[in-house]
Amino acid sequence: IKGNLSSKCEKVSIDKIATNDYLLLPSRYALSEDMKESIKKFNEYKSSKTLSSIAYMYRAQATKNEGDGKEYYEVGASDINEYGFINAPEKTLLLTPQSSSLKNKLQKNDIIFSIKGTVGKVAFIDKAVDNWIVNQSFVIIRVTDEAYTPEYVFKQLTSKVTKDYIALHAAGNVIKSFPIDKLKDFRVQDPTKDSLFAAKEKTQRQIEILKAIEDLKKELSEI
Description:
This protein is an alpha+beta fold and 223 residues long. Helices cover 37% and strands 17% of the residues. The radius of gyration is 20 Å and the shape is globular. The chain starts with a helix and ends with a helix.
């Protein structure tokens, strides 16, 4: 190691490694200045609740094409754009009314959070969908506390503070994973009237802009 030793290394005890489930990920022990600032902000939330206390949470199970029944679209990480919205999933499968895969069915205002593979990818279901299901990489989050709104929770889960929290607790080298318990225990800052309004306005504006872009693309293709 060359240069400033303190900026390259972190001396940690066996006890600290044990509290991190013996994972030797640098991000667990040597935090960047940006991440330190994010964790500080996270810890300074004056009032907050755990995500599991304000929302129904369901870990989606593996889906299986039954070859019969109604056609469904399966949402995967690649269907989510960089802003956290889904235009139209491409993968299809057939499911009967008795299929256990229907537990993965999505509805308007759901939020999905990837805990395997593309860890931390979040999407907001902004429209009524009758035939969308999500694959087993995701947790479905359905806000139940009336003091919060789906748009507000969505914005909280896509903030920089949250992204740094995810990076700190994610595990795995080839296939990343994020412990569902950490997601359940994630603390959502209590909203104010202004923050609820701002989250709704920003989300709606994003949806409007994305729709306008799609309309322009369609018009361009027809010229």
